[in-house]
């Protein structure tokens, strides 16, 4: 393949496979007449399980791809190439077979392999141009239909020590391990965040603050350099493992980054802090849901009430708010109903206390397994399922607490 074309210039990336010289020349001519399409080069060999090339970023990042496969050198390998390309690029690729053959058996085999069109030699430039135009419209429409569908959930503790990181980590791993979703977990703390400790991540070179400062350069290659991959499949941007000062954040950086990440992930979970007042409004505006984590003790609940009162001044906050009561038990001094009466808002999730297992998990650097039975994992199972099914109704996952006296806060 020749030098890669910059991603920003490619709407529809076109390439050929084993094309005869006259076919390749006609393809280049046709692509040049379709604005938004770019010929990025040729694969000289058919693609198989043994010979699978490294695809350049312009293919993986384009809205759509078109491959024209010359089938005359080896029809069997050409059909395998079509199947491999469909498996790799799924719905975003259109396949065109070209051959001197016109028999029904070949046409049927090509269609079964996932071919979208079959052309005959010599390649008619006008017909190929029309196919490129048709495919490009389809790719753009499909991209617009799915663009930006990833959900952003930001997590805030009403005070320190309520288990915000534990909550974010376990929801993320349940989404990945049980529901097979593509999830990015961001530890947005300017220093000494704990996500890496929960996941046993030892080293990381880059942090979210640095990504924010490089927002103007954000693309797939830059993002991939920031991401650390956990064994579960969860992708993580950790916090610095050093003491550091907060960094200045460009006014529109958060919304721009989240818009980009929505196109790359099913879910983006952000473990952050109320202390970052300069970006608090921007982060909440960029979030689809805001998980406010509290424990059922009086000190935390007092802060929960005050936080909700204050944050309700942000436009749209209450529609995004999800109240999470962590370490909930049936012996809590304040009942779920008392909490809801005080905050005038429903509890979205009550996560049962699981102190012993969580301490073992943190020390081992591995979250509590989603396969482990119990009220704790059941709470995250229900929460994750609700998100995957796009459920909006809240639910309480703990044992119904006993009604007790209410402390005025």
- The low-pLDDT segments are 1-9, 391-409
Overall mean pLDDT: 85
Distance between the termini: 67 Å
Rg of Cα set: 26 Å
Secondary-structure element sequence?
EHEHEHEHEHEHEHHHEEHEHEHHEHEHH
Give the strand line-up of the largest sheet: 8-9-7-10-6-11-12-13
Quaternary = single chain
What percentage of residues falls in helices of 4 or more residues? 40-55%
Specify the biggest β-sheet.
8 strands, mixed
Number of helices: 16
What does this protein structure show overall?
- With 409 residues, the protein is of the alpha/beta class.
- The protein has 16 helices and 13 strands.
- The strands form two sheets. An eight-stranded mixed β-sheet has the order 8-9-7-10-6-11-12-13, with helices on both faces.
- A hairpin with a 5-residue loop joins β8 and β9.
- α1 packs across α5, α6 packs across α16 and α10 packs parallel to α11.
- It is elongated.
- The N terminus and C terminus are likely disordered.
């Amino acid at each position: 393949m020749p030098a890669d074309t910059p991603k920003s210039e490619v709407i529809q990336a076109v390439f050929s496979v084993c094309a005869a010289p006259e076919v390749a020349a006609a393809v280049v001519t046709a692509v040049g007449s379709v604005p938004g399409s770019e010929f990025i080069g040729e694969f000289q060999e058919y693609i198989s399980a043994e010979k699978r090339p490294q695809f350049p970023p312009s293919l993986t990042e384009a809205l759509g791809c078109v491959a024209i496969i010359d089938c005359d050198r080896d029809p069997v390998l050409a059909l395998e190439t079509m199947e491999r390309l469909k498996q790799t690029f799924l719905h975003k690729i259109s396949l065109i077979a070209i051959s001197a053959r016109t028999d029904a058996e070949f046409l049927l085999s090509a269609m079964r392999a996932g071919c979208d069109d079959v052309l005959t030699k010599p390649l008619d430039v006008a017909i190929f141009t029309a196919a490129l135009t048709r495919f490009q419209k389809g790719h753009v429409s499909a991209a617009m239909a799915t663009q930006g569908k990833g959900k952003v959930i930001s997590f805030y503790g009403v005070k320190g020590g309520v288990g915000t990181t534990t909550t974010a980590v376990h929801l993320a791993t349940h989404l990945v391990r049980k529901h097979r979703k593509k999830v990015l977990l961001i530890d947005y703390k300017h220093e000494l965040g704990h996500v890496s400790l929960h996941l046993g991540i030892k080293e990381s070179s880059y942090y979210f603050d640095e990504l924010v400062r490089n927002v103007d350069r954000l693309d797939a290659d830059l993002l991939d350099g920031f991401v650390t991959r956990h064994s579960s499949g969860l992708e993580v941007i950790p916090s610095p493992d050093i003491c550091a000062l907060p960094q200045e954040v460009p006014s529109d950086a958060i919304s721009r980054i989240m818009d980009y990440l929505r196109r790359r992930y099913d879910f983006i979970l952000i473990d952050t802090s109320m202390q970052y007042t300069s970006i608090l409004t921007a982060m909440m505006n960029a979030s689809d849901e805001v998980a406010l984590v509290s424990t059922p003790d009086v000190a935390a609940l007092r802060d929960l009430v005050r936080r909700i009162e204050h944050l309700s001044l942000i436009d749209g906050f209450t529609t995004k708010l999800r109240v999470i009561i962590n370490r909930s038990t049936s012996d809590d001094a304040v009942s779920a109903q008392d909490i809801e009466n005080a905050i005038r808002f429903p509890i979205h999730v009550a996560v049962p206390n699981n102190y012993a297992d969580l301490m073992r998990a943190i020390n081992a650097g591995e979250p509590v397994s989603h396969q482990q039975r119990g009220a704790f994992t059941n709470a995250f199972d229900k929460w994750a399922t609700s998100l995957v099914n796009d459920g909006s109704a809240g639910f309480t996952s703990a044992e119904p607490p006993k009604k007790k006296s209410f402390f005025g806060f």
